């Protein structure tokens, strides 16, 4: 019934949906009315030629799509359980250069198990944790601080250094490092995540109450555009790609943030996910990565990029 509802929601027309589902229009209308009666809500606002979702309908569409996607994943896993290892491993990732390490492990794991696919979902830590709790993600690469009580985890090796991304012509553009006092004199673009803002509050100390927050962001690209247009200086991790018209300046004293790869304790996982976790645990101390790339690889990452 959920697939029927999703088809109607997509087509916004009962006749077109009936054609796609190979049923008559009266049959489909009756099924929809039964679903609304069962749920006790109206799912669509009807007109002569179209149907629009109500708020309740939009909520059901989101939940129904999650259920259908999970069901299809399970069917796919059962279909291949007697064949080579296969399936989808879903990982939520924050914006961190530790993704370099994780991507290396993903590539090596797929060399051993080419039928395995990875689905990577980029979001802030709070949203990733919510999706892990609901079973929509198997694992999460989370930037700290993170409450790890519910999770098994592997601590990632690279610590992100904080700084300010400033615009061309900013009073700070000639600085090699920037202090809390200097930043308190500019409009700022702050991260939206509350626990991270608490970390920044500790770093700013008495200057925190004096800050002029012009905007907040959750993912970085839009913040970089706002910096370029002089909305404010963005507090962010060290950037290692070009954002024309901007310059990254590290904070002084140094402020760093670590990352952890987590998965829920006592959770039932697919064979592909379990094998990937086993592989990760074997690599936890990163001997293969250091042997292959050496310290110089991260030294290159830690060089600030000047984009003026």
What is the chain-wise order of helices and strands? HHHEEHEHEHEEEHEHEHEEEEHHH
Name the beta content range.
15-25%
Oligomer: single chain
Average pLDDT reading: 85
Fill in the CATH topology of the largest domain: D-Maltodextrin-Binding Protein, domain 2
CATH superfamily name of the largest domain? Periplasmic binding protein-like II
Number of helices: 12
Global Rg: 24 Å
Summing up helix and strand content along with how strands pair, one would put the structural category as alpha/beta
Share of helix, binned: 40-55%
Main attributes?
Arc Repressor Mutant, subunit A; 6-stranded mixed β-sheet; D-Maltodextrin-Binding Protein, domain 2; 308 residues; 5-stranded mixed β-sheet; 43% helix
Give a verbal description of the structure.
- This protein has helices at residues 2-11, 14-21, 25-39, 55-79, 99-112, 125-133, 180-183, 194-204, 220-228, 271-282, 287-293, 295-301, and strands spanning 44-46, 51-53, 87-93, 116-122, 139-143, 151-155, 160-167, 187-191, 212-217, 233-237, 246-250, 256-257, 259-264.
- The chain is globular, with a radius of gyration of 24 Å.
- It folds into 3 domains: 2-76, Orthogonal Bundle (Arc Repressor Mutant, subunit A); 80-158 and 258-301, Periplasmic binding protein-like II (D-Maltodextrin-Binding Protein, domain 2, 3-Layer(aba) Sandwich); 160-256, D-Maltodextrin-Binding Protein, domain 2 (3-Layer(aba) Sandwich).
- The termini are far apart.
- It is built from 12 helices and 13 strands.
């Amino acid at each position: 019934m959920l697939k029927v509802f999703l088809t109607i929601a997509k087509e916004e027309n009962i006749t077109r949906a009936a054609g796609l589902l190979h049923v008559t229009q009266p049959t489909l209308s009756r099924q929809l009315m039964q679903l609304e009666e069962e749920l006790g809500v109206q799912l669509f606002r009807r007109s002569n030629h179209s149907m629009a979702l109500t708020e309740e309908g939009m909520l059901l569409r989101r939940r129904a799509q999650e259920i259908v996607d999970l069901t299809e994943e399970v069917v796919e896993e059962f279909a291949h359980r007697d064949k080579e290892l296969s399936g989808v491993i879903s990982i939520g990732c924050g914006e961190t250069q530790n993704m370099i390490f994780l991507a290396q492990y993903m590539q090596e794991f797929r060399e051993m198990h080419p039928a395995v696919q990875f689905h990577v979902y980029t979001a802030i830590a709070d949203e990733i944790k919510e999706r892990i709790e609901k079973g929509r993600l198997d694992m999460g690469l989370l930037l700290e601080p993170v409450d790890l009580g519910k999770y098994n985890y592997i601590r990632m090796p690279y610590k992100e250094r904080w700084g300010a991304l400033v615009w061309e012509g900013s009073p700070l553009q000639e600085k090699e490092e920037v202090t809390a006092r200097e930043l308190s004199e500019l409009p700022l673009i702050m991260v939206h995540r509350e626990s991270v803002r608490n970390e920044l509050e500790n770093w700013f100390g008495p200057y925190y109450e004096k800050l002029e927050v012009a905007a907040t962001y959750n993912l970085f690209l839009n913040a970089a555009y706002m910096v370029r247009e002089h909305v404010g200086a963005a507090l962010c991790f060290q950037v290692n790609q070009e954002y024309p018209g901007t310059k990254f300046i590290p904070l002084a004293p140094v402020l760093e943030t670590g990352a952890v790869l987590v998965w829920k304790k006592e959770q039932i996982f697919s064979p592909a996910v379990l094998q990937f976790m086993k592989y990760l645990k074997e690599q936890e101390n990163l001997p293969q990565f250091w042997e292959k790339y050496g310290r110089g690889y991260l030294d290159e990452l830690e060089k600030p990029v000047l984009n003026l």
